Amino acid sequence: MKLELRNITKRFGSLVANDRINLEILPGEIHALLGENGAGKSTLMNVLYGLYDPDEGQIVIDDASVTFAGPGQAMAAGIGMVHQHFMLVPVFTVAENVVLGHEPVKGGGILDLAQARQKVKEISDRFGFDVDPDARIEDLPVGVQQRVEIIKALSRDAQVLILDEPTAVLTPQETDELIEIMGQLKAAGTSIVFITHKLREVRAIADRITVIRRGAVVGAADPQSTETELASLMVGRSVNLGVDKAPAQPGDVRLKVRDLVVYDAAGRASVDGVSFDLARGEILAIAGVQGNGQTELTEAILGLRRNVVGSINLGGNELVGRTVRQVLDAGVGFVPEDRSKDGIVKEFSIAENLILDLHDKPEFSRAGTLRQSEVTANAHRRVEEFDVRTTGIDVEAGKLSGGNQQKVVLARELSRPLELFIASQPTRGLDVGSIEFVHQRIVAERDNGTPVIIVSTELDEVLSLADRILVMYRGKVVGIVPAGTSRDVLGLMMAGVPQHEAVAQAAAHHKATPSGADSQGGAL
Asked: Does the predicted model carry a pTM greater than 0.85?
């Protein structure tokens, strides 16, 4: 099946998400859509999949123009989509999920589960998916859940398969397995549209690359291009992908976390017996697949979690049981993982957001009244220092781009002396240029002698920034390793393999494939 998008335009109010985009998908090819978060890639595919109606343009299949009133019609035309956030019912089995919406029935309208199981088995065997039709979704690892989504699409005879940021929640090993699966699908004649912002993956698998920036196609790229060349095309200027930092010079230990347990609303331990130390002048990266307790750990340190036992000692002061205000006053700076929800007040101006946790300090307030001249002067200093791109300090923070919102949060949190700096997903959704700036500021804070914790699901970011890496799996610490640890070892640990076993397994794999993808050549 040959698929074309011609002059597709999609608007949301005044925002032009897709601007006259042309795209051709050839039979049996892997076509990568490369671009930063917010570039318009997913919107374009949602138009193709029938979730959005295009405002202009047309979809053409085998030289005939088509329109889709919804995903059902797109699927009937041979288009399948695996969304970044899986569309599976956790309490259903694999077979039940695969046939949901087009259930096979036998006499009397009874669900034919045997036929459903057989369909799953046929597809699984054909592509080596190794998926049990009777397994319950909630019991499966994330990588296997993704295979179920692919089986769902293939069970409806998808000839074009859209994968939207498919590796966002995978370990490096699961990413490698997905790339193998994509190769098998391609060999069977399935066309794949691969949406991503990860340069390493694109170079590993794509036949063709189309780069989208700010809703428009800015060019095609050769899969043999370097990561630096691809990054420059994505952002429109030359960028430095590395992090320039000297070796850490750790000082005295300032943070001591001992036997920390954080309970969720149902009484389950989302953080289970975590212990570690952190010294002045070092960066500890907390790595792991999203949802393994990293968020709860950082929120417990900040005082956002109430059902906490154990000890969090910062410079001799116990933080467990303290309020958020008390923790901030103890010298903790915090960049939350969702900046728009937890990092800024969208309706407040840039100047107001820059003093959210300082507004009652003598520098900015007297007798309960803000010293507006000081608020204004502070805003001008911080906007210049952190290169916040804005027309003025009175602009509402919610009207800034994601990168500039993050700079406002960083400027506020780094505007005072700190005893501990925590940055959770510090570059999520940022363009390459903004990532470069954020990394520089984090390293500068470390070099000022501040203990730094970063939480990131991006393994490249972890390896670039960390002096030590703490790996979490299901709320527990799998191990704490030096920054030079290989991707293979980290990936296995992220899947719950104990550190010593991960080292042995990675070494055995490397020895077995000396000329293959080594520990530094994973796809993440």
From this structure: no
